[in-house]
Amino acid sequence: MNFEQIRRDLQWLRGEDGVVEPSVADDVLARILRPLLLLEGFDMLVRTAPGESDNGFDLEASDRNAGPSEIASIGIQYKHFGDGRRIGTKDVRSLIGSGLRHSHPRLIVLT
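The structure corresponding to this sequence follows.
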């Protein structure tokens, strides 16, 4: 795992503050999270086409060691509003609702 690249990507994300297209920021976030989640036994689910439905999440991961009857997945939402705008109750409720609809027992929201 290249921790130096992860550190550079994290610094870039801190500085982008809503300036770049969301898809670009999501790609960088996926590059950061993929090796970290892999250490915990999770694989990132990759969307195959731009604009493909995201089920209310920017990224999703599944536990590669989970049995067929286990639901072991993570829904990940990245909010990069810019201008230091904070997420609100509505954003958190939406994330929880999406998690319930798509059977994600774990949710991560990053700002």
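The chain has a mean pLDDT of 83.
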